[in-house]
Amino acid sequence: MNTHPYVGLWVTADGHIRHELLQNGRYDEARGRKTSAYQGSYTVTGDHIEYVDDTGFTADGDFVDGILYHAGMVLHRQW
Length: 79
What we know:
Elements: E1 8-12, E2 17-21, E3 26-31, E4 34-45, E5 48-53, E6 58-64, E7 67-70, E8 73-78
Antiparallel strand pairs: 1-2, 1-8, 2-3, 3-4, 4-5, 5-6, 6-7, 7-8
C-alpha cells in the first residue's frame, strides 16, 4: 500500500487537469468535463513521480515546495 504524503488530488489553476493519486499506486486523471480521461499506475521516489498509463504511455514529474510540475503543467494540492 502506497502511503506517501503526495496521495490526494492535484489540480491546475484553471481546474482543467485533475490528477488523483490513489493510495494503491494508481492514478485517475480528469480533463475538463471528461472524468477518467487517463488511468494507470504511478511510483514516487523521493520527490519524483513516474506515471505509466494503462495503454503503456509513460510520463514523469517532480514535487517542488508543495507543487507538482508535470509535462509543462503546474498542479497544486487540493485539500
